[in-house]
Write a structure and sequence with these properties.
Helices cover 36% and strands 15% of the residues. Helix 3 crosses helix 4. It is of the alpha/beta class and 389 residues long. It has twelve helices and eleven strands. A hairpin with a 2-residue loop joins strand 1 and strand 2.
């Protein structure tokens, strides 16, 4: 809880005790509670109840932050200048708290996607080929073997997004959301292939984690808008970023009642013996224009900040900069670090060209990040997994 929020609560309390009607003009809301206070003053410092501890408390100075960025980072300077302007009530660029919305892609923007492919792809490969508790149908096994062979050789199978979206839903049919999240958390513990001292679940870009914290400390509401499965994404970002489940938008499959079978939801009544399980039918793959669609449906406002890393995020970025109500920015990460990451200069140059053409701002992983995963993490060659023929 920030000092400003604490002072607001004190002012509101004093106003109510004096019977002042002007309290209604205060924009920062403080929930009324009949229970114990969550904030106390100890030796002049604010002590926060343990149950209220969040990742935001790590950012003590709301004008600082952005740890792990290079001192001379152009992108970091641009972000700081922007935040300073839009949070200053005396600035023409001021944005009210309720409209400070930032959207982030996940894979390749917040978390690595090169061990050697997306977390979601690697978990599907494990499920279909290497999970002793699950027997995949032959058509799923065939695709998983093709996908595994190609990602380890740096290739891409034909139409991977659509095919993976179809098969991944089927691979987890019957799981409850909690069971799929638990399965994801277990896979997060496995080593990130192509790196030393790194697990898949810890493969977050440290500068981007600090950016999320910095924005939240300055009263931005952060949403994850990912092409990965929403339930999987929720498990990935929950502990590391503290992003609540209702602010994670992702690829969606249908959920049904365990006793529903083939009955239409309009004709079925949920019973005391039911539980919600994954039906496995793809509803939407949230890439490209579908990201814009889901932002409009689920958030209901146009963001003012966007962060992505591929052409799949271009529509979301363009939607953000098209916002004519406020000053906006869209940033794109370039995978141009060949020493601390499995970078690709062809892709990085293509992204730089897109930024120049569209008015987006590039973030160079090589130049803007003081570290990526931490100094103890090193890049290694990929070790090809053995696949039973």
């Amino acid at each position: 809880m920030s000092i400003m929020r604490t002072l607001t609560a004190i002012l509101l309390t004093a106003g109510m005790m004096a019977g002042l009607s002007g309290c209604a003009t205060v924009t920062m809301s403080v929930p009324e509670k009949s229970g114990p206070e969550t904030v106390t003053e100890v030796a002049g410092d604010t002590a926060v109840n343990e149950e209220k501890h969040t990742y935001q408390e790590e950012v003590k100075d709301e004008t600082a932050g952005l740890e792990y960025w290079s001192d001379d980072s152009v992108a970091a300077a641009s972000i700081r200048d922007y935040v300073a302007a839009v949070t200053d009530e005396n600035s023409d660029a001021f944005i009210p708290v309720e409209d400070r919305l930032a959207v982030f892609d996940m894979d390749g923007t917040l978390i690595g996607e090169l061990y050697p492919s997306y977390f979601e792809y690697m978990m599907f490969i494990h499920r279909a080929l290497h999970d002793d508790t699950y027997t995949a149908p032959q058509f799923m096994t065939d695709f998983a073997r093709e996908l595994e062979t190609d990602v380890y050789s740096g290739k891409s199978p034909d139409n991977p997004e659509r095919r993976h979206a179809k098969f991944a839903g089927l691979a987890y049919v019957g799981m409850t959301p909690d069971e799929l999240m638990d399965y994801t958390r277990e896979f997060m513990k496995t080593p990130a292939d192509g790196f030393t001292n790194l697990t898949k679940g810890d493969a977050f870009y440290l500068p981007m984690v600090s950016l999320v914290k910095y924005l939240e400390a300055n009263d931005f509401t952060v949403y994850i808008v990912s092409g990965s499965d929403r339930t999987v994404a929720r498990a990935l970002v929950k502990d590391k970023l503290g992003i609540p489940e209702n602010r994670v938008i992702g690829m969606t499959y249908d959920f049904i009642a365990s006793g529903q079978n083939m009955t239409d939801g309009l004709d079925y009544v949920y019973t005391k013996d039911d539980k919600v399980i994954l039906g496995g039918n793809l509803v939407i793959k949230t890439v490209k224009m579908n990201k814009v669609t889901k932002i409009a449906e689920e958030i209901g406002k146009v963001p003012v900040l966007s962060f992505g890393n591929t052409a799949g995020d271009q529509s979301m970025a363009q939607y953000t900069v098209n916002n004519d109500k406020y000053e906006t920015k869209a940033f794109m990460l370039m995978c141009d670090d060949l020493e601390r990451e499995h970078g690709n200069m062809d892709k990085a140059n293509a992204m730089k060209k897109m930024c120049d053409e569209c008015g987006f701002e590039p973030i160079s992983m090589r130049d803007d990040f003081a570290t990526i995963y931490g100094d103890d993490v090193k890049v290694t060659d990929y070790e090809r997994l053995e696949v039973e023929q």
